[in-house]
Amino acid sequence: MAGHSKWANIKHQKARMDAKKGKTFTQLSRAIIVAARNGGPDPETNFQLRTAIEKAKAASLPNENIERAIAKGAGTYDSDEGQLEAIRYEGYGPGGVAILIEALTDNRNRTAADLRSAFSKNGGNLGETGCVSWMFDQKGVVRLEGEIDEDALLEASVEGGADTYEMTDDPVGAEVFTEPTNLEPLNRTLTEQGFPVKEAEFRWIANNYVAVTDPDQARSLLKLMDTLEGLDDVQNVTANFEMANELVLQDTR
């Protein structure tokens, strides 16, 4: 399983290096709205909503914003905002790197224009639906942070129906992978057994990777990824590249 989360790991490294917040309040609120709309306003019975609220609280989104987002999703809050819809976009970065973008938007034309501009200004191009998605599989991922007994984790992972897990060094912990439909039971099993669960999420994981070794290409690619993730309509960005830590570090100096 080693390497299945390369961009996720790079994001964690960059977040610590440049002290950026992973998501804007707008992005976090939209995730809550859609989760409440899809599964109801009760986080106890809506796992998607519960994880969205946990991420929002971790990013210090005020409680009143969270409550307002839940109400909007449930249809109990008067708002002039358009209906949000989930759309997946696909494209290529410098060097032919495959990129998947998950967005929540109330204006498809605006979102597509913003994405097209971000790609073109950073050496990539927005592609057609299906052009790169075949290179990725969606998985449920439970991320643990802290000291972990690997034997105990193996036992709990089997009990929770996980496919596999990967120990991590930076930060110290592990990532446990499962089928998307099994994410909630796995998360509950690990939590109940006292593992240091940091977050549970759905993640697209690449089937193969492009090695990036050229410093200029690395710089352009990381700038593109940062630009895409900075757009309010964008919720998640996934790519199939790997690069040495030294190249990630150069981008933060």
UniProtKB/TrEMBL annotation:
Coiled-coil ranges (or none): none
Domain TACO1/YebC-like N-terminal: 5-75
Gene Ontology cellular-component annotations: cytosol
UniProt keywords, alphabetically: Cytoplasm, DNA-binding, Transcription, Transcription regulation
SUPFAM superfamilies per the UniProt record, alphabetical: YebC-like
Name of the protein in question: Probable transcriptional regulatory protein FRE64_14210
InterPro entries: Integrase-like_N (IPR017856), TACO1_YebC-like_2nd/3rd_dom (IPR048300), TACO1_YebC_N (IPR049083), Transcrip_reg_TACO1-like (IPR002876), Transcrip_reg_TACO1-like_dom3 (IPR026564), YebC-like (IPR029072)
Location of the protein in the cell: Cytoplasm
Region described as Disordered: spans on this chain: 1-21
Domain TACO1/YebC-like second and third as annotated: residue spans: 85-241
Keyword Cytoplasm: yes
GO biological process, one term: regulation of DNA-templated transcription
Family, as annotated: Belongs to the TACO1 family.
Molecular function per GO: DNA binding
Pfam families noted in UniProt: TACO1_YebC_N, Transcrip_reg
